[in-house]
User: Fold this.
Amino acid sequence: MPQPDSTHDSPPSLVGRLLFASGLAVLALRNLDDLDGRIAYADAKGVPLADTLVPLSSGLLLGGSLGIGAWKLPRLSAGSVAAFFVGVTPLMHDFWAVDEDQRGEELTSFLQNLTLLGAAIAFFRHASRE
Assistant:
């Protein structure tokens, strides 16, 4: 008879959460530190209301990462991180719409974001089972 999975009653690994959360927090802080540059890049990509959406989305990423790290409001936190990647990834890393010189870099960024989105979804699912 299989043993019950005790992970349903406990938060995910502290090390895993802290690695994930700290990496995302640094990304968010880098965005906020170079806000003018990030807004200009988003503008160049055709993002509407970039001057509003860039700081808001960076704040969403920062808040979500801190919540995952502390495992406070974990569904909201993981949902915030997932929302960031769902909104940002296809707009900012549109590898299919750039010239061949930029395609590799944009594809790499797209795939990295897709991977982080997958982790955010896994954290969300774990938090939903608690």
User: Anything to note?
Assistant: Confidence is low (pLDDT under 50) at residues 1-8. The longest helix spans residues 100-128. The chain is about 75% helix and 0% strand. The two ends are 23 Å apart (CA to CA).
